[in-house]
Amino acid sequence: MNKKQVLSLTGAALATVAGVSVANEEVKADANVATNNAQTQQVQSQTADQQAQAKVDSAQANVNSASTAVSDAQSQLNSASTANTAAQGAVSDQQKVVDSAQANVNSASTVVSDAQASESNAQKNADQATPANIQAVKDAISNQEQQISKDTDTINADDQAVTTAQNNVSSAQANVNNANAKRDNQQKVVKSAQDNVKNATDILNNSSQAKAKAQDSLDAANAKVNNDTNAVNTKQGEVDTATEAKKNADADLAKAQDAEKAAQKDKDAKQTVADQTKAALDTANAAVKDAQANVDAINDKLANFNTITLPSGYKEALKAYEDYFSDPNYNQAKAKELSDNILKFRDSATSQNKFKNNNSDNKVVDISNLDFETRAELSHFVALLVNQVRAQVGTNAIISSPEATAFAEQVAQNYNRDNWNSAENGKHDQNALNAASSQLGIDWNGENMGLDQTVFTSDYTVLNDGTELATSTKQTINNLKHLIYDDFVSMMFDDADSAWGHSTNFAGIGSFVPAKQGVGFSMDKYFNTHYDLMVANDKVEKDTYTLPSINDLVQKLSVAKDNLSSKKTNQATKQKANDDAQSALTVAVQVLATTQGEVKTKTANAQTANDNLAKAQSDLTKLQAELQADQATQKEAQTTLDSFTVDVATKQANLQKANDNLKAEQGRLGIAQGNLDNANKALADANNNLAQKKQAVENDKATLKADNDKLVQLQSNLSNLQNAPKLLADAKQATADAQKKLVDAQSQLTNATNKLNELKNTATATQANLTTAQKKVTEAVKAQSDAQEALTQAKNELSALQQKEALAKQVAEQQAKLAAEKEAKDNGYHVENNNVVDSKGNNVQGWTVKNGQMVDPNNEVIEQSKPETTNVTVDGKGEVKPQTIINTKGNVQTRAKSTSTKAVTATTAQAATTVNQTRKQYKQQLKSNSQLPQTGNDNNAILSLTGVALATMLSLFGFKKREY
Known about the structure:
By secondary structure, the chain is of the alpha+beta class. The protein has a four-stranded mixed beta sheet with strand order 2-5-6-3, sandwiched between helices. It is built from 22 helices and 16 strands.
């Protein structure tokens, strides 16, 4: 529901509520009028109960109306709430759309920036793509390949150095092991020397126990020397075997390394060939792609060649209209008829002539600053359309040239200088045209204009086919051609308002058309399009553009297809060469990988053989040292045993010798420890040297990788230089595509934002409507409450009035009955022969007899007249006791107090109450009348009793001032 409808409905509801308020005031006014005793003639004519009932009916109608108003207001509130919820939800949903559109714009902007950077790099690459630079890169590639070969040789040499260093480490480790064994053995020798000193001491002392021990030691030493000798001989055989194995492993490693070097050189050579064939194939592929793109572009132009077709009879109608201007009998009616004859072709021509989009025209340009190349292309398009029309009309073709384009641009600049917006003033700026003629020396001959500024300054679907151009100064060339085509169709087939002047300009009809005519296109700062016609002098005819035609495109397509075929043949040749080169490279890479695996295996084998030899040599050294030590121990044991048989002096000399030998062996132990320390240091140096050699290899590999990367970069640079034109074209197309997507994204963002603003406005309106509806409900509910209160008051007043009237009626009936009884008693009415007669026997009119009883005209049963005397007593509570009656027959009867002394009854609509006289009331009555009312008493007594009843009745209601 729109805002106007909501407000309309809200106004109706307000009128209803106002009606309830007015009715409520009328109820109060009626009540006031009733209270003031009918002060108008209309109220005076009504009875009190009619007035009260009318007030109730009116109040009930107002309550019903107010209830309806509340229901309507609540319904409107529900509708307003639903509408507001939907509107707020739509705003929330659209905000998400806007956020997404903004994200798309941001993303598209980034893509444009990246594409522009790539285009800039492609342009720099194209600028550098000279033959000299290309040759320089080729030379650099050759040098780099030689450097990579040197890097490989260096790695091989350093690998060999690592192997040597590893051998040195193994040898140093063996030396450490030997030195450690010698030190350990020397420690044993020292221990033995210490034992010899002890033995020499024991011998000197002639210890038998020591002699026996010496014999045991000799026996043990002999056995140990024998075992050591066997172990040394066995280990020597193992060393000989390990030495031969290491020799063979080293030879195998050298052979594998030679094979690896050969495989590396072969791979490098084949890599060079493969790179060259790949570059040649890339060039051939690019050439095929370019040729295919050219074929596709021409096909696209052929399929989407924009044409203007004149309906049959159109040119005759247009010529007839133009010729009629020179008719001496010219009149407006005839001219209108001829104009209508042209206009009748409008719909069919518009339907027949539709713009065709071209993919090659998707480049984005800034229409506020069109470059010459773009303006020239658009001028070509205008001339193409004009010449199609003129060919069908039979008039001279028009030309397009640089000077014609420049003239149109000068006209636009002059319009800008004059701040002339034809869309606002509806006129051409002849000063601008004349000035351009003077400035460039070219006579202008006509101008058609399209007032198209709204296309780019507002969200406006301008084109005849419903195409909506983006609200932006960034437009594709395709869009601008579409705009020109749209202008052209309108000017040719819907130009009656301009007396078909635009049509005849383009068609070249009229005496003013020169033999040679040029046309140029431009756009002023107001985005109005200018189609400027001029006399084609020598200046304009210079460097005339060749306009495209179907035949030209067909011929170009044939040449393009031949070129594509040639490029594909060359591509196939280059593909075969590259396939062969890549296959050979693959084999070389596999061979290199195999040889590298062999080198790795042989290196590991050589290392294992070296380790085995080193271990065997180390074990042999240990065994030899152990044998030598055990032989010394054997000799000493023999000497010790022999010493027991020499003289004391010799024993003393032997003890001295043993001590001297101990000192000497302890000195040798110090030397052995020093040798071990030196061997450990040598091992540490060898390990450091090995780490350095390994690091050198890693450095060599890093250098090789860097040089390979440089080679790849050089090869990429060569490919880029060789394919620079294609890369630049692709980069420009990528930029154009990105810019178009950005324009589309910006347009979508603008549309989404506009829709969001509209939805926000709608949401604001629905919120206001909701607030208004809530207020109306509150007002309607209060009005309903007021009406209900008035209805309750009116009903209470009616009920009170009805109660009073009922009681008054009962009193009146009782009064009438008392009067009838008095009448009967005063006149002696009684029944005779089933008739009511008076004391004289005369029939009483209006009285009847029913069931032997008298009935008065009011249908009340009245007792027959019987003279009697009633004695009344009152009990201590003031109530009348049963009465003793003495009738005319002298009989005494006792009857209820209601028989003669009547109880007065007051009745309301809810209940009946019997009122008994109190003692005070009875005494007052006796004081007033001296006796109870009897037959024959006057009416004053009756009225007196009636007054008591009336007073009692009124006391039931009370007296209270009515309030409003």
